[in-house]
Amino acid sequence: MIDANPTQAASLKKVLADGHMLASHTYTHEKSLTAMTAAELTSEITRTSDTMFKHSGVKPAYVRAPRGECDQQCINRLTAMNLVVSHWNCDTNDWRQMDMAKKNPQQAATVSMEEPTKSIINGSNPATDSFILLQHEIHEFSVDILANMVAEAITKKGYRFVTMEECIGVPAYLDGSTVPPPTTPPTVTSPAVVPPPVGATTAPGAVVPTASVGTPQVTVQPPKPSGNSTAGAGIVKAGAWAMGLAAAVGYAFL
Questions:
Q1: pTM tops 0.85, yes or no
Q2: What is the pLDDT of residues 59-86, one digit of tens each?
Q3: Rounded-to-integer distance, Cα 162 and Cα 20, Å
Q4: Which of 138, 162, 171, 187 is the most buried (most CB within 10 A)?
């Protein structure tokens, strides 16, 4: 846990300083958000937000549900909290390869590239398609081997990596957050276009509250709920894959 680990606590500021984005992945990562009461869900989000604010100065506006489990009621509750519920549309399945990684980490990384290769490298067009990729920084092989394989293959295809904020178009942090300027701006090596979000009605997905979004400022304002729980619901097919804490989708595992 961040509060009990000074090294992890310090890493939050480093992620921001390196130009990446922090988001919520809940506090306990145990019970499905779909199965939680409203009070339990609120507790998961606020405890995470308060901890991240304590150690980094920001309160995340984006949340990824553990295991992607967030039904429409869950989405509605999180949207009412001015949060963007994000969901991947391509899974490396690195979390399935842990036994293999103990014996042969290179093979585990190669197997983890199968879905990205099928969906992105062989099955997409950078001019019209884009992706949110699931990967985990808590798996050593995924950081040390897979991250480079993914980055090389996807940039060679013509895509570029962006934060969820740029991908979705909603500010990364809630009101009162203070975001330091990055000390090492991310390098963009590909001119590929990131298309605008495409809404759908399937959940779980990325929920984009209706908001007027301008240029991100040091102190940001929260997106304002639209009052229509389904207005922004759906999987957003948009290009975002941020390296956070060392690798993976830009989510700090708290």
A1: no
A2: 999 999 999 999 999 999 999 999 999 9
A3: 9
A4: 171
